[in-house]
Amino acid sequence: DTAVSQTPKYLVTQMGNDKSIKCEQNLGHDTMYWYKQDSKKFLKIMFSYNNKELIINETVPNRFSPKSPDKAHLNLHINSLELGDSAVYFCASSSPVSDEQFFGPGTRLTVL
Amino acid sequence: GENVEQHPSTLSVQEGDSAVIKCTYSDSASNYFPWYKQELGKGPQLIIDIRSNVGEKKDQRIAVTLNKTAKHFSLHITETQPEDSAVYFCAAGKSGYSTLTFGKGTMLLVSP
């Protein structure tokens, strides 16, 4: 069974559109994250949620808004998409007991 | 905040050789140092981690060493195989706080 799942896997859209990426984990973890991986493979934390509460919000444009309806889900909504938003977005989850972060398969976003 | 430097950015070895990837960190309060492997088209996956109360940890062909004084840690892969080819990331963080700062990654290519 998939531990951390994301949908969609690929997302191609036009500049200016609004899109969402969904993430779900079935590991019972309390903490979930969104990372952005650019074309040079650099992994940068965007947001971190613990028990549905935002605990980390790195320097990310306001156009990005995470939403956590419950502990197992953390969705990412992006308004007014720009060319520079093109990247692979990874969702992850972790437990404070082990510190290990489990990553989803990624969503490749392409903005045309 | 924490800053993690990783070298080299690319590493090519022959099958059977050893590979070493090195990382340095800046925050002396960091005490958790994981290594992740990312295969093409997949999310990063933890392969080994070390905490600041030990200097070395081994798991079959993989080992990690930590020098707290110098604030650097290294990944050692022995008897490399083509399936070891991937991007490897080091990271540093504080145990129990979930936040990790990643290095920029090393693309390892193992030639048969």
* Overall number of strands of chain B: 11
Global structural class of chain A: mainly beta
Task: Determine the number of helices of chain A (DSSP H or I, runs of at least 4 residues).
Answer: 0
* Distance between the first and last residues' Cα of chain A: 34 Å
Low-confidence stretches of chain A: none
Tell me the series of helices and strands of chain B, N- to C-terminal: EEEEEEEEEEE
Task: Detail the topology: elements first, then pairings.
The complex is a heterodimer of chains A (112) and B (112).
Chain A: E1 4-7, E2 10-13, E3 19-25, E4 31-37, E5 43-50, E6 53-57, E7 64-70, E8 73-78, E9 87-94, E10 101-103, E11 107-111
Parallel strand pairs in A: 2-11
Antiparallel strand pairs in A: 1-3, 3-8, 4-5, 4-9, 5-6, 7-8, 9-10, 9-11
Chain B: E1 4-7, E2 10-14, E3 19-25, E4 32-38, E5 45-51, E6 56-59, E7 62-67, E8 72-77, E9 86-93, E10 100-102, E11 106-111
Parallel strand pairs in B: 2-11
Antiparallel strand pairs in B: 1-3, 3-8, 4-5, 4-9, 6-7, 7-8, 9-10, 9-11
Question: Would you kindly provide a brief summary of this structure?
Answer:
The complex is a heterodimer of chains A (112) and B (112). With 112 residues, chain A is mainly β. Chain A is built from no helices and eleven strands.
Overview of this structure, please?
The complex is a heterodimer of chains A (112) and B (112). Chain A has no helices and 11 strands. Helix content of chain A is 0%, strand content 57%. In chain A, the strands form 2 sheets. In chain A, strands 2, 4, 5, 6, 9, 10 and 11 form a 7-stranded mixed sheet that branches. With 112 residues, chain A is mainly beta. In chain B, 36% of the residues are buried. The model of chain B has no long low-confidence stretch (mean pLDDT 95). Chain B contains no helices and 11 strands. Chain B is mainly beta. Chain B has strands at 4-7, 10-14, 19-25, 32-38, 45-51, 56-59, 62-67, 72-77, 86-93, 100-102, 106-111. In chain B, strands 2, 4, 5, 9, 10 and 11 form a 6-stranded mixed sheet that branches. Chain B has a 5-stranded antiparallel sheet with strand order 1-3-8-7-6, with no helix packed on it.
